[in-house]
Amino acid sequence: MEYNYPKFTPEMKKTHTILIPNMAITQFRLLEYALRYDGYKCEILGNCGSAVAQLGLKYVHNDTCYPALLVIGQFLDALDTGKYDLEHTALIITQTGGGCRASNYIHLLRKALVKAGYPEIPVASLNFGSGKGQRLPDDPPAGPPCAGLHLLRRYAVRFAQSGGTSTRTRRGLPIRW
Fold first, then answer.
1. From the centroid of its chain, how far is CA 135?
2. Stated pTM of the model
3. What is the pLDDT of residues 123-163, one digit of tens each?
4. Which of 71, 72, 130, 155 is the most buried (most CB within 10 A)?
């Protein structure tokens, strides 16, 4: 059975608040700034704790990796608070495109949203595949290409993937970020 889930469209940029999970806080703060730079309304979630993990476990199989449980629990807990206008709220989640199960977070999240009674909440896929065969087929990026996201891809994501080091040098010495 194919579920026709809601898509995040470019028009939603003006009307929706995008909730960002609190996964890698430094990189996700940069993501928040990049999205705000491009005119999106967004917020990094601050909810955490065992109640969030239990909520994630309620809607996701217990064999799922722990970060997925936390992220999904965080989103559902935020939606349950009543703080957000559900008709004008969207979620964003990264997709790695590699062997890590993190590529499946978006599917797990959508399934959990339906089970929890939030089938109308759009989920945007944030992935940086750009070449042929690299773009994940699941979703278009969150709206049109953005200057802020381009900068984020260029610097923050590469920085995170490098383990905090850069290959650039100044005066013959390696630069450590």
1. 16
2. 0.76
3. 988 776 554 444 444 455 444 345 556 666 555 555 555 55
4. 72
Query: 41 has which bridge partners?
Result: 17
Q: What is the dihedral of CA 122, 132, 96, 78, to 10 degrees?
A: -10
What is the DSSP track for 153-165?
IIIIIHHHHTTSE
Strands 165-170 and 173-176: antiparallel
Q: What SS3 class is residue 42?
A: strand
Q: What ranges make up the beta strands (E) of the chain?
A: 17-20, 41-44, 89-94, 123-126, 165-170, 173-176
Locate 1 and state its tokens.
């059975």
Residue-wise pLDDT tens digits, 12-62 = 989 999 999 988 888 888 888 888 888 889 999 999 889 999 999 999 887
- The residue type found at 28 is F
